[in-house]
Design brief:
50% helix, mainly alpha, 2 helices, single chain, 72 residues
């Protein structure tokens, strides 16, 4: 995976986590559940830990990197 792909997954996860809390309603959660934040940095940390445990390699793009996709 590339950093850009990780960032896209993090953005999608944050949106889905916020949506899930809104859809569940307050009866199944503590009263402050809607105030819980899923900041991108925290979600990224958890995602990267999970990917590492699954032996997924993250390719960090550098300046001057080729335009070739990482799977080629």
């Amino acid at each position: 995976m590339t950093d850009d792909q990780v960032n896209l997954v993090v953005q999608h996860l944050c949106e889905q986590l916020h949506l899930a809390l809104r859809l569940k309603g307050s009866e199944a959660h503590p009263p402050n559940a809607k105030d819980i934040g899923f900041d991108p940095a925290s979600v990224r940390t958890v995602l990267l830990a999970g990917l590492r445990s699954a032996s997924v390699t993250i390719h960090h793009e550098t300046a001057g990197a080729s335009e070739e996709p990482p799977w080629s």
